[in-house]
Amino acid sequence: EDQVTQSPEALRLQEGESSSLNCSYTVSGLRGLFWYRQDPGKGPEFLFTLYSAGEEKEKERLKATLTKKESFLHITAPKPEDSATYLCAGLGEEKLTFGTGTRLTIIP
Amino acid sequence: KAGVTQTPRYLIKTRGQQVTLSCSPISGHRSVSWYQQTPGQGLQFLFEYFSETQRNKGNFPGRFSGRQFSNSRSEMNVSTLELGDSALYLCASSLTNGYGYTFGSGTRLTVV
Which of A40, A54, A73, A80 has its CA 20 to 30 Å from the CA of residue A102? Predict the structure, then answer.
């Protein structure tokens, strides 16, 4: 059975303090690794899709990377508006399997 | 362009009742997937429809069902509601399976 595990569950950072979120996956026939951001009471908002090991994508203060077993979401010099839950999901042969997310809080 | 629209946004139902949720995908998107989100389990896949056909189904009881219409709009139905069905129900649309999933804001279902 496909599995996606995210760590840590929660992370508090000072504004400007860079860090990384981890996503470990075991997904049969992985066709893509997705990162989403979710704000309270809203649906997930698409950030990135990574398709092969070694691939990297960037958007503003976020950079996502992919290896054969893990993906990382690096956040550089975060701002309070980056506070949200970050979800990763692996697309296997039939469906997207989500991790339970990392709740990120940026303290001004 | 308009995003994925889910209605209603909030619902309160009594145990034993049934409920129908609606999802209108982005124009041109033919794939609609449904997910249940709870604090303990995260997002769990319910089912996926493409061109009015159910392509994949998650590990949920038969009380959970869905359908897709010719205009790609989708509905999901939950019969004989249980307290544990309280959750945020999300739908996502994409042009085809596997690429560019866009989520709606969800329907918050509370079963009392």
Answer: A54
